[in-house]
Amino acid sequence: MRKKFLLLILVYLICLFSTTACKRISTKNETKKELVLASFTVLADIIENIAKNDDFVVRSITKPGIEVHGYKPTPSDLINASEAFVFVDNGFGFEIWSEKFVSNLQVKKITIADDLGPIFISEDTYKGKPNPHAWISPKRGILYVDIIVESLSELRPSKRELFEKNGETYKNELSKIDQDFSLFINNLEKDKRYLVSCEGAFSYLANDYGLNEVYLWPVNAESQITPKRMARTISLVKEKNVPAVFCESTVSNESQMVVVNETGTKFGGNLYVDSLSVDSGPANSYLEMLKHNLEIIKRGLE
Ligand SMILES: [Zn+2]
What we know:
Blueprint (H helix, E strand, L loop, with lengths): L1 H16 L1 H5 L10 E5 L2 H11 L4 E5 L14 H9 L2 E4 L8 H6 L4 E4 L26 H18 L4 H28 L6 E6 L3 H7 L2 E6 L9 H14 L3 E5 L5 H10 L2 E6 L14 H16 L1
Parallel strand pairs: 1-2, 1-3, 3-4, 5-6, 7-8
The structure holds zinc ion.
């Protein structure tokens, strides 16, 4: 184990001093493909849809189901990153680890948040900080596509046409989901428009579609429920007679079950936010993730 770790460190150090040599390292099937590395699975899937072509391969540093905010990169993550020509992250403080992670690597960096308007967190220790989870709204997902198409085109101008064409096709799919969601909310009685979750990850969705957002903690980096937050959530669910509450796939729903037991509301299910599911799961792509979330929310609130 120790030997393997030392070997990884050695390869990493070699890569640091000879980046071009390492950029050519690739598996048999990926010969000559350029590597685009994303910080998390949702972003990797969006990029894959834009850059799908024989020239590129896209990978995510964090794997499906893994908590992303406070992830601790491994030596092999560093080796992967040194092979990439560009590293794409979300920003808005989502990947606490990414700034340090890329600081020693000779890799270009695209940060989605640099070109996206934030929604700010309004409470507690996170007050005034941008909420990172913009991709959770299909409307913002369309903006992610535009930003990635433009940024990749600047780095690889000869592929602009390909990126733009793929981007348009992909945005059409996102528009359909956007329309479905709008239709559902418009038909939902106003007093049922509450989205109660574990993490405060739905601000963009709530804002873009007219839902009231309630959560147990602001971001997963601090996934502890305080008595004050618990009491506030319980009283709101009771007072507004909220038909269902939800949690997210990357955290335990234990705290939300307390709300269920205290109020008699039902548990609506797990929503996917920070990570896609494994291939066999219900959210194995960004589009499937949005559709799954919409379906779960529909079933819970209708
Ligand atoms: Zn999160």
